[in-house]
Amino acid sequence: MSAHRSSRPNAACAAGADAMPPADSTRAGVNSAAAISPAGPASPAADLLTAAAPERTDPVGPLAAPTGLRLDHHRPDLPVLGGTGATPALSWQVPTAPAGWIQARAEIEVVRGPVGALPGTPEAAALEGPDSLFVPWPFAPLGSRESAAWRVRVAGDDGAWSPWSAPAVVETGLLDPADWTARPITAPGNRRTDPAPVLVRRINVPAGTTAARLHLTAGGTYEAFIDGVKVGADELAPGWTEYSRRQVVQSHDVTTALTPGEHELAVVLGNGWYRGHLTWAMREAVYGQDLWLLAQVELSDGASTTVIGTDSDWAWRPSNITANDLYNGQSTDLRLPALGAAEAESPVAVGDLPKAALEPTTLPLPTVVGEVRPVEVLTTPSGRRVVDLGQNLTGHVRLAVPGGQAGDVVTLRHAEVLEHGELGTRPLRNAECTDRVTLAGTGTPERPEVFTPTLTQHGFRYVEVDGFPGDDNALLACVTARVVSAGMERSAWFTSSHPLVDRLVENTRWSTIDNFITVPTDCPQRDERLGWTGDIGAFAPTALSLYDAAAFLNSWTKDLAAAQTPDGALPAVSPDVLEGNKLTCAWGDAITLVPWAVYEATGDPSVLAASAEAMSCFVDGVDAVAGASHLWRGGFQFGDWLDPDAPPDNPAAAKADPDVVATAYFARSAGITARAWEILGNTERAAHYEALAASVREAYLDAYVTADGMILSDCATVYAQALAWDLLDTPRRVAGAGLRLADLVRLRSFRISTGFVGTPLVPDALVKGGQAATAARLILERECPSWLYPVTMGATTIWERWDSMLPNGEINPGEMTSFNHYALGAVTQWLITDLAGLDVIGAGGRALRVAPQVGHGFTCASVVRRLPLGTARAAWEIDGDTLHISVQVPVGASAELALPGTAPETLGHGLHERTVTLPAQLRDGVGQIRTVRDLMDDAAAWERVVEAVRGKHGAYMEDPAATLTGFLTHELDSTTKVIPGAATMYGFIPGMEAAKAALEAVIAEVAPNAPEVTSAEIG
Question: Beta-strand (E) ranges in 120-193?
Fold first, then answer.
């Protein structure tokens, strides 16, 4: 090994992955011209959609002042206003430090005081040890309406202090129900189908006011305005929680808006999740018939505070939003005043404080994270105009209309795909996804009328526009898609030598953006959009790699745990609007899988503390059902949902035995629960669940696994579970299961054979089973079902079904078809951690492992990861017979570097470059082809064999590869020369002569040294 190479990876794998390739232009839906822009220079969300990877810098240098100060899981370096409790956790990064430096102590200084008053005397706290992540609040608890600015400095064993960090600011909101003098108000008589109500109050701000705060939440969604100017950047606030149990409260600094004098505070209420349609049953008003607002303005002069809350002094009036629904869309009449007319005001009704807890908003609420400009206007065969945005996304259209007559109506219908050249609306089911704007007739090119339907949400790439007063060029210039998502920071950038794989990762990122609004939804477009537990249970590690999603997922998990019943059962969706908990594997296991994923990604033990009892309750519930056998049998199970072999109308009909799948999950969750209690310091409960996990594993092995590693139901999903979750106990079983899993992949012509449960696990399982080359081959397959098939079809997000769009351009005939489901994109985690090779093995990134799966069809790969301690990266490329790799390790972390053919080494923080000679098997690939398995593993040779029989016989017309592997199911260990006979049933099928002759010719060329066929192999 040498350490002197200084070259960087080639252009295709430049660390940073700033520019993602377009989808394959040979299929429909090319998006290369899509113009994506940030939300605006003044918005804190401006860089969330298009953020470039952090620059490559050397963490070795003089000890620098800490940066990246953060409170709990809020975005670093931004003030935290009303988003915390009394004792927030503190974290920071050290950008540079001398080689070998380790934090030995830290000093934190805080200056605090009431909002609007002068700050008090600085307080300091000394901390010992290396911890810089989620350090417990070291001061007296914060009270309501308290502001604190804190900073930190650090020192190593030599005692030399770093400079002080820049201060970070935190301000609490109303932490106690007694802080609320306001009461909820409603608009009497306003129904779901009526115009959105505006609740108004005129405020006289006294002279001398130094600080003004607005605290509010609502039953429904809201937008607040002061003198007609929107407050904050939130969309669809306060988001969706389990409203019967908790409402999250937002706090805004409105000091600059509420200057001394008179002002009007107006709040528009939308139906949202509270009163609008939910589920495919189109349920109405699930949470209540009346929208309500709870708001409190607090004006401080430093000595006293004036409080103006919602009460009978408020009034309400109808807005110009004549209809609004998250599923169906929004209608607005621009002839009417946006915030209603004063003469139309009516008294409000005052109610009691909600029984649900009023909590600070700890998750990032939806905001406009960026904008996408359309690429073209299409004319459909029926003569309709459709705007193509080039990217499937979530949000709404901003339409600027430069002309038109008063009373003209412009209609916008949204969909994800086209079918036969027309808008493909069938997958939307009952959701209308239609917005309408009635023009006032005042628009000019200089001052167009602007329509932004902010009380709805659509998942779409295409918008059919009817009634627009202008030609196609004018329409193209007047449409902008506003991307709405939770305000999360991006945390991973990936590139490789395969542009289609890079696009797959980008599609996964977009599906994360599009489905992380306020709960992790299955899809953003049809009459569903629910927080399915099974989907996020599988996808949480990937989401946490791509985005800083911890706060988002913590909030969701809190609702999930709150809905648990004493028998451990959990709802299949959270918030629960399907009514009925179920004790079911994968979906129920989300209560262990999601908090554990958050802990591994962040290192925050409070995540486990908040969920450990719910984890235990779930595992105990399964234990009670399993009984002395320790096998989870029977009961309702979704199983390996959407197995590609399942019929479209029965997605639960999987190859994997549901009892085998469920018992594997039982062992997995029991083990996670044991580790959670161990981290929390409860050794007794940790020992209990570890013993239970061991008993379940033993029962699983006895009941379902042979000594050679064959597993009952003999399909890829059960092998993937056993290998990925370390359920197998002997090298013989591991090797046998690994080989069988690889053979099952081969016998599917390297196409996907697993559903939601198995798919995320297969590549990792193959590597653990010693079959890394098969994992890479599976990733690179393009025929359906495969990860790359949708990419070749022009997909810009992850699909729900492998064949959501059929090769002929028709939408899958199944009723359940979405083009924006993140679950199957969970393979992105393997691409980041194994292919590019940068894995987090110590919670929060304190310990990393750099062990890329080099070669196997890839010549380079690169990943940049923004971790809690700082930026880490790994980039490798193959140049002839050598491997070059560069690694960046942040201060506070170490990395184990494991390269092919070399002994592992431990790296401290800094930049590291290595060059090694590749072992022969990685340089030469498969080598000499002797067996059928060898032939299948050689992609070029296998393709020649498939092409040789294509069209030669009726059996080889539709899918020659699948037919061929069907004939060779039991021939993998046989000589390659058995193929001409085996693939033609040795002459017992008439008309196979041409296929046999073609196969003999190809085999003679690709495997000239293969052994001759023995009589035993002929059978």
Answer: 123-128, 146-155, 168-171, 185-186
